[in-house]
């Protein structure tokens, strides 16, 4: 969406506030220029706001149309929601990565591929973790597998 707004030369309203109305101390030429800038900003904000709203479902359109007066307000609200969702999904990925357990029911190759998939998702999500952390998680997962294998082999030896 931001790329689209940049192409239309409207994205600046998401970053800059409306220029201030000229004071009575400003020269007439300068006051006219500032008023033109205000009018342009208001027109561009109207277009930008409606382009953003046009990309939403009716439910969200009604909610944000009434709630937010300017395009920047809508943009900042959506951005904060997106960042919160992204943060929670990163926590979920890290949690799945740390809690991954090897089991006897599946082949080792299949489980290693699942683990690598989790690790790749973390890389794609730009989650930077210390190498020692990765080694610790991997070792703890394989130690769990090794302990269950040892228990099975001890049982077999007794039989």
UniProtKB/TrEMBL annotation:
It comes from the Eukaryota. Pfam families: Retrotran_gag_2. This is Uncharacterized protein.
């Amino acid at each position: 969406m931001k790329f689209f707004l940049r192409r239309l030369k409207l994205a600046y309203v998401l970053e800059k506030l409306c220029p201030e109305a000229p004071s009575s101390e400003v020269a007439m030429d300068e006051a006219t220029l500032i008023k033109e800038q205000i009018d342009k900003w208001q027109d561009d904000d109207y277009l930008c706001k409606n382009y953003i709203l046009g990309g939403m479902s009716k439910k969200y359109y009604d909610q944000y149309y009434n709630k937010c007066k300017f395009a920047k307000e809508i943009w900042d609200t959506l951005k904060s929601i997106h960042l919160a969702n992204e943060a929670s999904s990163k926590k979920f990925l890290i949690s799945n990565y740390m809690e991954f357990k090897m089991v006897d029911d599946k082949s080792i190759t299949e489980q290693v591929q699942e683990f690598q998939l989790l690790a790749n998702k973390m890389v794609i999500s730009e989650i930077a973790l210390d190498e020692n952390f990765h080694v610790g998680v991997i070792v703890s997962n394989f130690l769990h597998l090794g302990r269950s294998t040892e228990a099975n082999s001890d049982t077999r030896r007794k039989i």
